[in-house]
Design brief:
Blueprint: H1 4-17, H2 20-33, H3 37-49, H4 53-66, H5 71-83, H6 87-100, H7 105-117, H8 121-134, H9 139-151, H10 155-168, H11 173-185, H12 189-202, H13 209-219, H14 223-239, H15 246-250, H16 256-270, E1 288-294, H17 301-312, E2 318-324, H18 332-340, E3 343-346, H19 352-361, E4 366-369, H20 379-383, E5 389-393, E6 407-410, E7 426-429, E8 460-463, H21 472-484, E9 489-493, H22 498-507, E10 515-518, H23 523-529, E11 535-537, H24 546-553, E12 558-561, H25 570-577, E13 584-585, H26 588-600, H27 602-618, H28 624-638
Parallel strand pairs: 1-2, 1-4, 2-3, 4-5, 5-6, 6-7, 8-9, 8-11, 9-10, 11-12, 12-13
Helix pairs in contact: 1-2, 2-3, 3-4, 3-5, 4-5, 5-6, 5-7, 6-7, 7-8, 7-9, 8-9, 9-10, 9-11, 10-11, 11-12, 12-13, 13-14, 17-18, 21-26
C-alpha cells in the first residue's frame, strides 16, 4: 500500500533540494491516489519552477475548484498570472486571497504590481503602502513603489523610496538598477552609471543592468567605457544573458543582423504572446480607419514632424484616430493635435488589453506605431493584433523584431529592398523620403550670435544631436576640422556629455573653449538659432533625424556620411529629397574633406546655402500635401 506521508516527505525534500523533477514525480504519485488540494498547489509550484506554466495554472485551478478559499492556491496562482503578464486575472486572484486573509505583505505587494501593469498607478501605490504598513522593511515593496513613482514622473519621491530600500539592503541589485534609472531621468547621469555598475556587481546575471550602463556611458560620452561595453553588449545579445534595449543598441552598432537579434530578444522576453483579436481579414469600410498610437502626442519631435500629415488626411477617404498614452503637457502642440484628429483618445489609464479591444471594436483597419522601441512605447497593445494591418513608422529607425508588426514604412535609401533580411516587418517604400515634415512652420529672424554665446566672427560648425550620438571617430574628425579652420568653433547641444567632450577636445590639442554648448530652447527659438551656424556636421552610426530636418529647413547645410543601416542613412535620404546630394559622403575621409572644403571656401559655402534655401521651397521634402497623398496611397494598397 502506498505510504502517502512518506511520499509527501520525499516530495518536500526533493523540492527543497532543487530536484524538481523528483518532486514533481512524487506529488503526481500522491495525486494519483488522493486529490488533495494542498498537494495540487505544491505540485503546481514545482511545475512553475520547471517553467511548465500552462500545466501549473491548470493545477492551481483544479485545487481551487476543490477548495475555493485555499489561500496558498489563490496567492500562488496570482503570482503565476502576474509572471504570465495576465495582470487583470492576477489582480482577481490576489483580491480573492485577501478575502481569506489580509495580513500577508507579499500579497499586497504583488497586487500592487498587477495594478501597475494595468496602468492603475494610484491604486498600485496604495497597495504597496498596505504592504509596507504590514512589513515596513519590505524591500521589494519599497522598490516597486519607486518604480511606480518613476512612471508617474515623481522623480524625487521615487528616489527617496528606492533609497529607503537600499538602506535596508545595500547590495539589492534590483534596487540599485531602479535607482540608476531614476538618476538618469533626474539628469544625474554619472551617478546613474555608477548605480547600474553596482547593480551588475551585486548580481552579474541581472538582465537589465548592462543596458543601463551602456545607456548612461553613451550619454556621458565616456568613450573608454563605451568601447569596453560594446563587445559585452554583443555577447549579451548573442547568448541571451543580457536584455539590451534595441534603441540603446542603435547608438553602438551598425550591424543590422545584431540589431535584429537584439530586437527579437527584447520582444520575446518583454511582450507576452496574446490571442489575436483580428483574423487579418479586411473590413471593406467606405473610409479607411486609421489609428496612430504614440507616447509623444505633446510638444515633441514626433508630433512636430507628423502634425501636418494628421491635419491633411483626406477625410472623405480616411477616419483618423489618435491613441495617446504619453503626458498631456498643456502645450499649444497638444491642443493642435486634438484638433487634427477625428477622435483623440487619452488611454494612459487603460491597460494594453483594454486599448486593443477598443481598437478592435471600432474595426480599425490599420494601426500605426509611432514609438517602436523608444521611450514610453507600448508594444503590448500591438501584440493583441487589434487590426488587420500593423505598421512601424517614423520614430524607431529599424525593425521592431515583432511578429505582430506587419510593415515598416521606409524609403529606398534608408532601407533598400536588399536589406529585407534584417527586418521582421515587410519593407514598404514611400515615394521619395520616408520622413513626414511640417512645411507650415515660419522661421523667425536669426538672433544675434552674441545672444547665443557665439563669437561674432569665425566659422561656426554645429551639431545639435543629443550627446549620446557623438562617437569618438566622428569627434576626431571634428577636432581636425577645428585645427584646420582657424577661429572656428563647434556649437553643440548642452547635455550630460559636456564635461567629457571638453576633456576629449583638450586631449586632442583643441582649446575646450572652442566648444560652445547651447541650452535647450523652445522649438521656434531653436529653429531660428540654426541661422547663426555655418555648417552642420552629422554623426554616425546614428544620424541626425528630426534634428537634420530642422537644420535644413532653417537653411543650414548639413554634411553627412551615409552608413549601412537605417539610423545611419536618414540624413542622406533628406538631402536626396532636397536635391543636395553633394552633401552626402560615403566614407570618413570624404566626409572630412567635404566639410573642410565648404568651411575653407566661403563662396562655395554661400552658393550651397543659397541652393538649399531655394530647394527647401521647391523640393518635395517639406511639401506636406504631396507627402500625404503618397502615404494614403500606400495605406490603401495595404488593404487591397
Amino acid at each position: 500500500m502506498m505510504d502517502l506521508d512518506q511520499l509527501y516527505a520525499q516530495a518536500i525534500a526533493a523540492q527543497k533540494s532543487g530536484d524538481f523533477a523528483q518532486a514533481e514525480l512524487r506529488y503526481r504519485e500522491i495525486l494519483g491516489a488522493a486529490a488533495i488540494p494542498e498537494v495540487m498547489v505544491n505540485h503546481a509550484n514545482v511545475l512553475v519552477m520547471m517553467n511548465r506554466q500552462g500545466e501549473a495554472l491548470a493545477g492551481y485551478n483544479r485545487a481551487l475548484a476543490a477548495k475555493p478559499n485555499l489561500f496558498e492556491g489563490l496567492y500562488n496562482r496570482g503570482n503565476l498570472l502576474l509572471e504570465m503578464k495576465q495582470a487583470d486575472a492576477a489582480l482577481a486572484s490576489f483580491d480573492a486571497a485577501l478575502s481569506v486573509r489580509q495580513d500577508m505583505a507579499g500579497v499586497w505587494n504583488n497586487r500592487g504590481t498587477a495594478l501597475r501593469d494595468m496602468r492603475r498607478q494610484d491604486a498600485a501605490l496604495a497597495s504597496y503602502d498596505r504592504a509596507l504598513a504590514l512589513a515596513p522593511g519590505h524591500v521589494n515593496a519599497l522598490t516597486n513603489r519607486a518604480i511606480t513613482l518613476l512612471e508617474m514622473r515623481r522623480l524625487e519621491d521615487a528616489l527617496a523610496a528606492v533609497d529607503a530600500a537600499l538602506r535596508l539592503q545595500p547590495a539589492f541589485a534590483e534596487g540599485l538598477y531602479v535607482r540608476g534609472n531614476i538618476l538618469r531621468d533626474l539628469g544625474r547621469m554619472a551617478e546613474a552609471l555608477d548605480s547600474h555598475e553596482q547593480a551588475l556587481g551585486a548580481n552579474p546575471a541581472h538582465p537589465h543592468a548592462l543596458n543601463g550602463m551602456a545607456q548612461a556611458a553613451a550619454n556621458l560620452c565616456d568613450w573608454p567605457r563605451t568601447a569596453a561595453l560594446a563587445p559585452r553588449l554583443k555577447e549579451g545579445i548573442e547568448t541571451g544573458r543580457a536584455l539590451i534595449q534595441p534603441f540603446v543598441m542603435l547608438g553602438y552598432t551598425d550591424d543590422a543582423a545584431l540589431q535584429r537579434r537584439c530586437a527579437e530578444n527584447y520582444v520575446s522576453r518583454t511582450v507576452p504572446r496574446q490571442p489575436p483579436l483580428s483574423d487579418g481579414k479586411r473590413y471593406g469600410h467606405d473610409k479607411v480607419r486609421l489609428a496612430y498610437l504614440s507616447a509623444d502626442f505633446h510638444q515633441h519631435p514626433t508630433s512636430q514632424l507628423m502634425i501636418e500629415l494628421f491635419e491633411k488626411h483626406d477625410r472623405s477617404r480616411f477616419e483618423v484616430c489618435a491613441i495617446a498614452f504619453g503626458p498631456d503637457d498643456g502645450s499649444a502642440m497638444r491642443a493642435r493635435l486634438k484638433q487634427a484628429f477625428d477622435r483623440f483618445e487619452d488611454v494612459r489609464e487603460k491597460s494594453d488589453a483594454e486599448v486593443a479591444q477598443m481598437l478592435r471594436l471600432r474595426e480599425t483597419d490599420i494601426v500605426i506605431d509611432l514609438n517602436g522601441h523608444t521611450h514610453g512605447a507600448r508594444p503590448g497593445i500591438f501584440a493583441y493584433r487589434p487590426a488587420p494591418v500593423a505598421v512601424n513608422y517614423l520614430v524607431y529607425p529599424g525593425t521592431t523584431g515583432a511578429a505582430f508588426m506587419d510593415v515598416i514604412l521606409a524609403d529606398a535609401i534608408v532601407a533598400p529592398a536588399g536589406q529585407q533580411e534584417f527586418f521582421r516587418e515587410k519593407i514598404i517604400h514611400l515615394p521619395g523620403c520616408y520622413q513626414a515634415n511640417d512645411g507650415s512652420r515660419a522661421v523667425a529672424p536669426a538672433p544675434r550670435r552674441a545672444d547665443c554665446g557665439l563669437p561674432e566672427s569665425g566659422l561656426v560648425f554645429c551639431c545639435f544631436n543629443n550627446n549620446w550620438k557623438i562617437t569618438a571617430p566622428v569627434f576626431d574628425i571634428w577636432m581636425r576640422l577645428l585645427q584646420a579652420v582657424p577661429g572656428s568653433v563647434l556649437w553643440l547641444l548642452d547635455g550630460p556629455g559636456k564635461e567629457n567632450l571638453r576633456k576629449e577636445s583638450a586631449a586632442r590639442g583643441i582649446d575646450p573653449s572652442r566648444l560652445i554648448f547651447a541650452a535647450h530652447a523652445a522649438p521656434d527659438a531653436h529653429l531660428a538659432r540654426h541661422q547663426c551656424a555655418d555648417l552642420f556636421l552629422d554623426t554616425l552610426p546614428y544620424n541626425a533625424h528630426t534634428t537634420a530636418s530642422d537644420a535644413l529647413y532653417a537653411g543650414l547645410p548639413l554634411v553627412t556620411m551615409v552608413g549601412k543601416v537605417f539610423q545611419s542613412r536618414v540624413a542622406a535620404s533628406l538631402l536626396n529629397a532636397l536635391d543636395m546630394t553633394e552633401l552626402v559622403t560615403t566614407s570618413a575621409g570624404d566626409y572630412e574633406a567635404r566639410a573642410l572644403e565648404l568651411a575653407s571656401n566661403p563662396a562655395l559655402l554661400k552658393a550651397t546655402r543659397e541652393k538649399l534655401a531655394r530647394n527647401v521651397k521647391s523640393a518635395p521634402l517639406y511639401d506636406s500635401a504631396r507627402f500625404v497623398k503618397g502615404v494614403e496611397a500606400t495605406y490603401e494598397a495595404m488593404l487591397a
